[in-house]
Amino acid sequence: MPEAAPRPTVPADTLTPDRDITHGHFAPGDRVVVLKGVAGSELWGDAMTVVTPSWHTPTGEDGWRLRDPNGGQHTFITAHPRYLVHLNRRCADCLIFLRALESLMVRKANADNTAVDCGWYSLTALDQLVHAADASRHK
Q: How crowded is the C-beta side of 44, counted as CA atoms within 13 Å?
């Protein structure tokens, strides 16, 4: 029986749950990314558009309704603002967070270019995106 390929290293995201970003940092029409994993020396994620304010039930805080421009089964989801990074403008807060997350995550991940979904997020039955750390805090 052939030996199974080694499983990629999946780093834990310890920064996002403690990110201090306010609801007002994002606005309808903003293009954002939800960072989901590592590919080689870069982070990758799902690009979305901020649509409207929406209560984020898993954290009990103000969130945002997001639209996936590619559509699909989960075209609209709700996310907490600390999960989001601006794509459509150079935002100092988002760039600092992105660089810190890259520094922490990329050095822990595999050196090859395989895209690894690190499992930092899941969707609830109500299409609310929840970070693994937030899910465990609010059970």
A: 12
Residue 95: its H or E element: helix 92-106
Distance between CA atoms of residues 123 and 8, nearest Å: 23
Element housing 67 (H / E): strand 61-67
49 forms bridges with which residues in the sheet?
31, 67
Q: Is the pLDDT of residue 32 over 90?
A: yes
Q: In this predicted model, what pLDDT tens digit does every residue of 58-106 receive, in sequence order? A: 999 999 999 999 888 889 999 999 999 999 888 999 999 999 998 888 7
- Please tell me what DSSP assigns to residue 45: E
CB atoms within 10 A of CB 30: 19
Closest of 58, 94, 59, 52 to residue 76, by C-alpha = 52
d(CA 97, CA 20): 10
